[in-house]
Write a structure and sequence with these properties.
Elements lengths: L2 H35 L3 H11 L11 H8 L3 H13 L3 E5 L7 E5 L1 H26 L5 H11 L2
Antiparallel strand pairs: 1-2
Length: about 150
């Protein structure tokens, strides 16, 4: 085995560990959010991203930016926005300065649900990280994630 093969194998193993950690965390949070609030991880993420917008210059995100923030395609993001709008958690309106632009805001009901779900999300994240930290393969990744949180 050459040095390149060894590096490539190490890189692949690192990627597999990262993917495993992400999958476990997301599945744990998904179960908690679904059980407690009838929200998926993607729905929670979308509400969270949109709740951080503000009025005024540069305060709104284009759908492309929202899609990137929630790691979905633009079409999947549009479908997700529509589902949450149908549940009364989001509202859409035309941009006052550019009638072609459409903004999406979290409704009062969406903000209440987000506020109720945030502790569930945070607790589930902590639980998933604590569980993963007990796995020797995942522990270094958990340490990297948790050390970033204390910065």
């Amino acid at each position: 085995m050459t040095a390149t093969d060894t590096a490539s194998t190490g890189l692949a193993q690192g990627w597999c560990a990262l993917s495993l950690l992400h999958g476990r965390i997301e599945a744990h949070i998904e179960r908690a959010l679904q059980t407690g609030h009838d929200l998926s991880v993607r729905e929670y993420s979308l509400l969270d991203v949109l709740s951080r917008q503000h009025d005024g210059e540069g305060g709104h995100l284009q759908m492309k930016q929202v899609a990137e923030a929630v790691v979905l395609s633009q079409s999947a993001t549009t479908r997700l926005v529509t589902r949450l709008e149908d549940r009364g958690l989001l509202t859409r309106y035309l941009c006052p300065t550019d009638r072609r632009g459409i903004y999406t805001n979290v409704s009062e009901a969406g903000l209440r649900l987000l506020a109720a779900a945030r502790p569930t999300n945070d607790t589930a994240l902590r639980e998933a990280l604590d569980e993963a930290a007990r796995n020797p393969e995942l522990a270094p990744l958990v340490a990297a994630v948790t050390s970033r949180a204390s910065v």
